[in-house]
Automatic annotation (TrEMBL):
<dbReference type="GO" id="GO:0005509">
    <property type="term" value="F:calcium ion binding"/>
</dbReference>
<dbReference type="GO" id="GO:0003743">
    <property type="term" value="F:translation initiation factor activity"/>
</dbReference>
<dbReference type="GO" id="GO:0003700">
    <property type="term" value="F:DNA-binding transcription factor activity"/>
</dbReference>
<dbReference type="GO" id="GO:0005737">
    <property type="term" value="C:cytoplasm"/>
</dbReference>
<dbReference type="InterPro" id="IPR016032">
    <property type="entry name" value="Sig_transdc_resp-reg_C-effctor"/>
</dbReference>
<keyword id="KW-0396">Initiation factor</keyword>
<dbReference type="Pfam" id="PF08769">
    <property type="entry name" value="Spo0A_C"/>
</dbReference>
<dbReference type="GO" id="GO:0003677">
    <property type="term" value="F:DNA binding"/>
</dbReference>
<keyword id="KW-0648">Protein biosynthesis</keyword>
<dbReference type="InterPro" id="IPR014879">
    <property type="entry name" value="Spo0A_C"/>
</dbReference>
<dbReference type="InterPro" id="IPR036388">
    <property type="entry name" value="WH-like_DNA-bd_sf"/>
</dbReference>
<protein>
    <submittedName>
        <fullName>Sporulation initiation factor Spo0A domain protein</fullName>
    </submittedName>
</protein>
<feature type="domain" description="Sporulation initiation factor Spo0A C-terminal">
    <location>
        <begin position="45"/>
        <end position="146"/>
    </location>
</feature>
<dbReference type="GO" id="GO:0042173">
    <property type="term" value="P:regulation of sporulation resulting in formation of a cellular spore"/>
</dbReference>
């Protein structure tokens, strides 16, 4: 009697055996409650609540910038020479792209975001005739809001 490795019965038996083995091993290493979403950092949570899509590069740049400003607030004084180069180096980009992507992310949140939270964070500090806040105004207001 020859053993046909590729017969349908053998393939099905092997699949069942491997599935059971995989299930047993995965149960061994399963961590209770591990199916939940990872907890967002406070800056990421705030950007999300503002209505900024996390798919934008500017979102990641802003999250990193807010974390850096929490540790080194003096970076806010000179974004072009302090903060933008750090972000550009971290994300393998340029200062110009960092500035533009942050500006576009702010614009997106400003136009389509949560108006109640925007009003709560910015109040009357932003001129409505100019539209969205500048990058520095946005970072300053958001970091101030996080520190309250």
């Amino acid at each position: 009697m020859s053993y046909d490795f590729f017969s349908m019965n053998t393939i099905c038996e092997n699949a069942v055996l491997h599935h059971r083995l995989f299930y047993c091993v995965s149960e061994l290493f399963r961590v209770p409650g591990n199916h939940k979403r990872p907890q967002l950092s406070r800056p990421a949570q705030l950007l999300h609540e503002l209505g900024m899509p996390s798919s934008l590069s500017g979102y990641r740049f802003l999250e990193f910038a807010m974390n850096m400003l929490a540790k080194q607030p003096h970076l806010l004084k000179n974004l072009d020479r302090g903060l933008y180069p750090m972000i550009a180096e971290k994300f393998d980009s340029t200062n110009g792209r960092v500035e533009k992507n942050i500006r576009c992310a702010i614009e997106r949140a400003w136009l389509r975001g949560n108006p109640t939270l925007i009003r709560e964070i910015f109040g009357y500090s932003v001129n409505p005739d100019q539209g969205r806040p500048s990058n520095a105004e946005f970072l300053c207001a958001v970091c101030d809001y996080l520190n309250r």
